[in-house]
Structure prediction request, 133 residues.
Amino acid sequence: MSEHKTPINSYRDLVVWQEAMNLAEATYRLTTRFPKEEAYGLTGQLRRSGSSVPANIAEGYGRDSRGAYVQHLRIAQGSLKEFETHLLLAERVELLDQVVLVPLLSKAELVGKMLRSLIRSIESSKKPGGSSQ
Prediction:
């Protein structure tokens, strides 16, 4: 099974970015149903951490070196773990139920696996003694 069916000309062509954007969009739609008093609490935290994942993928893609790209992908991984933690807290305080939580956590896990795979791919493509690009 081929990972890439089309050439990668932009971060928007990366399936991991597309999936992270889907997760961020789902988060925005979900949090519109949260109570207004959560606007500066879990609503904001979920939205910020969820949107940070695709944003860091995009920012890293635009960097001048593989090392900087990988660093941004690792930041995206951290944001994803923060996002998962906020989801679990939202479930604990009964803003979410399992029916909503489980698919979002599954999607987050998929994005995490894709990020790890992309990082490994970038790191293994470095040429010993070669340039960082």
Notes: The chain has four helices and no strands.
